Hints:
The protein is an alpha+beta fold. The protein has helices spanning 27-31, 54-67, 75-88, 164-168, 171-179, 225-236, 288-301; strands spanning 2-4, 34-36, 39-43, 49-52, 100-109, 121-131, 142-146, 184-188, 196-199, 203-208, 211-215, 240-244, 256-261, 265-274, 277-280, 312-315.
Amino acid sequence: xxxSKNGKFSKGDLQRFGNIELSPSSGVLNYxxxxxxxxxxxxxxxxxxxxxxxxxNALRMRTGAERMCxxxxxxxxxxxxxxxxxxxxxRWVPPPGKGSLYIRPLLMGSGAVLGLAPAPEYTFLIYVSxxxxxxxxxxxxxNLVVENEFHRATPGGTGGIxxxxxxxxxxxxxxxxxxxxxxxxLYLDSVHKKYLEEVSSCNVFVVKGTTISTPAIKxxxxxxxxxxxxxxxxxxxxxxxxxxxxxxxxxxxxxxVFCTGTAVxxxxxxxxxxxxxxxxxxxxxxxxxxxQLFSSLTSLQMGLAEDKLGWTVELS
Length: 316
Ligand code: PMP
């Protein structure tokens, strides 16, 4: 669906997946005026389909749109559009335990602009793709490297929203880390260069005893929906959760480190390399806390546990 600069989006329609037409001078192609979201649909044993907190993605897109000078669909429009797209692609939602349907909403300045300015027209679209379980055989630890040269975000920038440019800026550091055999990059803050921020596409948590700490949201890290959910799940399980500045030095004597995100769900960190020194966690790299939180969250997302908090939306 499309709308003009200050306009409202109308209900969109379904189209077969394919190329879209875009002006060479569109706002998104020239000035990066674009936002995206990511969420998943899981199939339950009874055949129905579950979405996980889709209104949170809608709200995050609205916050991002404000920062990027774009109009955005309402929460209701967003959730309706997601439901409509998933129902039309029902047959692509994998059977229980075999993966999920990844849903990618995109909002972009599709109108033409020449000088730097917000575009005169916007397009909101959603595409989907079945994805396998991130880890084929249960949880597998990832190996991170702390990035010392590049930063993902700076104060006052756009690190706190899901704008496309944030991902362009991490490609180089991530590719270099992968070429050296690491799974991904762990970013530090750009001011003190000593506080943890996040990984290229997930948030990070540090476990010490029964305390779980994660960097506080302050505009330079993405407020992950999995992060927010894990904080609640961990509190309900009796852990003490702290959102604060987490120094890179705390990695040295942490019991466990894990990452959270829609794609990785809860991903234990097996090792972290910082200034050439490698710290490993546990014998297997899969700590008991990460395992417990992974199980609690996925059983909610897959409809295996009672959804007392009303986080899932059922489609049939
Ligand atoms: N940080 C970044 C930079 C991300 O791209 C993502 C993925 N959306 C996350 C964190 C995790 O967010 P969520 O749990 O909402 O997927």
